[in-house]
Amino acid sequence: MCLGIPGRIVEVRQSEGLPMGVVDFGGVRREVCLSYVADEIKVGDYAIVHVGFAISKVDEAEAKRTFDVLREMSQLDELEWLKDLAP
Amino acid sequence: MKYLSEYRDPAMARALVTEIRRSATRRWVLMEVCGGQTHTIVKQGLDELLGESIEMVHGPGCPVCVTPLEQIDKALALAARPDVIFTSFGDMLRVPGSDCDLLQIRARGGAVRIVYSPLDALELARKNPDKQVVFFAVGFETTAPANAMAVWRARELGVENFSVLVSHVTVPPAMTALLEAPDNRVQGFLAAGHVCTIMGWTEYEPIAAKYRVPIVVTGFEPLDILEGMLLAVRQLEEGRHEVENQYVRAVRRDGNQPAQDLVTRVFELVDRNWRGIGPIPRSGLGIREEFAEFDAERRFSLDQIRTAEPTMCRAGDVLRGVLKPFDCPAFGALCTPEHPLGAPMVSSEGACAAYYNYGRFRAGSAV
């Protein structure tokens, strides 16, 4: 129910006074209400979209940091596996 | 980065599983309160990978599942009216009411339409001025801003034939109710990431402190969930009980302020009955008096609803994490996704449907 999908903002406009836009989800484009992220978002940014509303801008720097920590952990783990395999 | 596939990497998942198993000196009981996370955990078998280190208990994290029977029955009564176009998110259509479900009402000629966004329902009302368009406004804090916007815009644009049947629930009071229960076994929580994109996590700080439970704000992808579990296990091992944020890329401490503001203008806190669990004080959102004209319960007279819940269904015990779905006598035999007795067997995010679809017919029986 709380499913939210990250998508890239490709268009920003006003519709009868409401901030709206078009978001690209890996090739599928949808009209999305941008009212709740209007102050922080611009074309090219990623946002989490839920039931046709952008609810949060994806912080790219934080996303990369989380990912790097996880990758580092898995590389360490690979080393451990190699050590276990060594005679 | 696409912020999706990167968080499903099998090698990184294996590393996290190893780290969790290494960190846990005993078996800890954690609860997720989000149907999307339940689905991922059961589908990927994350809990089974963790062996003895963690027992995952699935909490009441599916708004579809906890929508009270009387609200479902009201939806059915509205949808059967010839002057009404009843609109809803798709997952509500097969939730069993006392007599039938919305899909059956549609088969009998009722105008029931699935919408992707509540703004689509509002648009439908503008295009059908001779009909009453009712939207079934269900969900957690994540969905409340979208539904609040539909009501706000209806007033702004003067759409008089639009109204909402509200059954909103909020997560923190449910967590508190579970922790207060004498049979509670939960030692730590994964808090639902998207609820927190809206609300932030300040509401969880007093809960973590009072009940001495770690609460980790967690995302939805397999790596997010495993990292959330790891952070919770580390806290438990070190005797800490803090609110921690795993879902840093989407959640800020104070949440989304413009969204909170509009929710507060349209809705107010009300007592809410949770299906299978019972009444929880101040655990729901209802429409403020100022927007009463858009409240379907006040627009149509719906007081004469008498509900009947099937006695065999143990959904309440499953939702509280006391029973696993396969412990229910009806599970998989009398109750299946094709013929559900209770809501958790309907929604793909319900624990019963997830267990059924991924072959969990007894402990450790995934096929």
Question: What would you note in describing this structure?
Answer:
The complex is a heterodimer of chains A (87) and B (367). With 87 residues, chain A is α+β, with helices and mostly antiparallel strands. Chain A has 1 helix and 5 strands. In chain A, strand 2 and strand 3 form a beta hairpin. The longest helix of chain A is centred in the C-terminal third of the chain and has 26 residues. The mean pLDDT of chain A is 85. Helices cover 38% and strands 18% of the residues of chain B. Chain B contains 16 helices and 11 strands. In chain B, strands 4-3-5-6-11-10 form a 6-stranded mixed beta sheet, sandwiched between helices. A 5-stranded parallel beta sheet of chain B has the order 2-1-7-8-9. Chain B has 367 residues and is α/β, with parallel strands linked by helices. The longest helix of chain B has 17 residues. Chain B has a domain of 134 residues: 3-Layer(aba) Sandwich (Rossmann fold). The chains are: A alpha+beta (87), B alpha/beta (367). At the A-B interface, strand 4, strand 5 and helix 1 of A face helix 1, helix 7, helix 8, helix 10 and helix 13 of B.
* Average predicted confidence as pLDDT of chain B: 93
Tally of contiguous helical segments of chain B = 16
Q: In which range does the helix fraction of chain B lie?
A: 25-40%
Largest sheet composition of chain B: 6 strands, mixed
As a percent range, the share of helical residues of chain A equals 25-40%
Individual helix count of chain A: 1
CATH class of chain A: Mainly Beta
| Series of H and E elements of chain B | HEHHEHHEHEHEHEHEHHEHEHEEHHH
* SS-derived structural category of chain B: alpha/beta
Low-pLDDT stretches of chain A? none
Biggest interface pair, counts: A-B, 42 and 57 residues
Order of helices and strands of chain A: EEEEEH
Please name the CATH topology of the domain at 5-63 and 171-245 in chain B.
Rossmann fold
Instruction: Kindly report the spatial arrangement of strands forming the biggest sheet of chain A.
Output: 3-2-1-4-5
Strand content range of chain B: 15-25%
Distance separating the two termini of chain A: 50 Å
